[in-house]
């Protein structure tokens, strides 16, 4: 059994920090959550992640592991409790990693663009791009889930964590922009998946409450506009 001396450096609003926390919950691993303050970086964070200087960082037995999806894979490989998070089949694993990269490199940056867009036309164009991405992910869900509840099958897997961590921010973006992005008619499977993911025991305790997250988002947006 791996050592249980586990810490997560992070902050509650961060979707990327949610990823290792969900993975640790799946594996039933106890950990200490060390909150970083936005706008400042602790000495422990700078020491643990001197290259990128950002959260999350998993500290396991005093050894730091950085980057959220790398941490999730590490957790899956180190702890054999709970179910496997990454697909065992090499092709399925490659497909899951492809879509996780798409989510981080293209889809989520598009979601962030909506709140920063100047004018209704720009906001509409950004929202259409995000919706088009969800349609792609709907198709990926159908192929990856093979008729089951999650991308990973009957239980939450790697790609579920990669996308599901953004559901809180998706809801906030919808409310603040008076938008409908995750549409039950356009993406019915993802719509049902989102409800199941959010209500899962491994997720509920780390999924930010929408109102609290919206208050935080308004503060961030105000600071961004002021600068």
UniProtKB/TrEMBL annotation:
Transmembrane segments: none
SUPFAM superfamilies: GST C-terminal domain-like, Thioredoxin-like
Enzyme Commission code(s) on record: 2.5.1.18
One GO term describing the cellular component: cytosol
Keywords annotated in UniProt: Cytoplasm, Detoxification, Transferase
Sequence ranges assigned to domain GST N-terminal in this UniProt record: 4-83
Location (main, coarse): cytoplasm
Sequence similarity: Belongs to the GST superfamily. Tau family.
Physiological role: Is involved in the conjugation of reduced glutathione to a wide number of exogenous and endogenous hydrophobic electrophiles.
Identification of the protein by name: Glutathione S-transferase
């Amino acid at each position: 059994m791996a050592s249980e001396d586990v810490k997560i450096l992070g902050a509650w609003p961060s979707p990327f920090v949610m990823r290792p926390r969900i993975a640790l919950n799946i594996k039933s691993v106890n950990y200490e959550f060390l909150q970083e303050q936005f706008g400042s970086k602790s000495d422990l964070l700078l020491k643990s992640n001197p290259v990128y200087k950002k959260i999350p960082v998993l500290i396991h037995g005093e050894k730091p592991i950085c980057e959220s999806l790398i941490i999730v894979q590490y957790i899956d490989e180190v702890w054999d409790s709970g179910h496997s998070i990454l697909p065992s089949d090499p092709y399925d694993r490659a497909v899951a990693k492809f879509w996780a990269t798409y989510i981080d490199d293209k889809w989520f940056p598009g979601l962030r663009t909506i709140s920063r867009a100047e004018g209704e036309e720009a906001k509409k164009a950004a929202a259409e791009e995000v919706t088009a991405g969800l349609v792609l992910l709907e198709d990926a869900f159908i192929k990856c889930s093979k008729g089951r509840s999650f991308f990973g099958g009957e239980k939450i897997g790697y790609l579920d964590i990669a996308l599901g961590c953004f559901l809180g921010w998706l809801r906030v973006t919808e409310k603040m922009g008076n938008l409908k992005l995750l549409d039950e008619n356009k993406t019915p499977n993802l719509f049902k998946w989102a409800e199941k993911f959010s209500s899962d025991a491994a997720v509920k305790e780390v999924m930010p409450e929408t109102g609290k997250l919206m208050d935080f988002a308004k503060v961030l947006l105000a600071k961004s506009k002021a600068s």
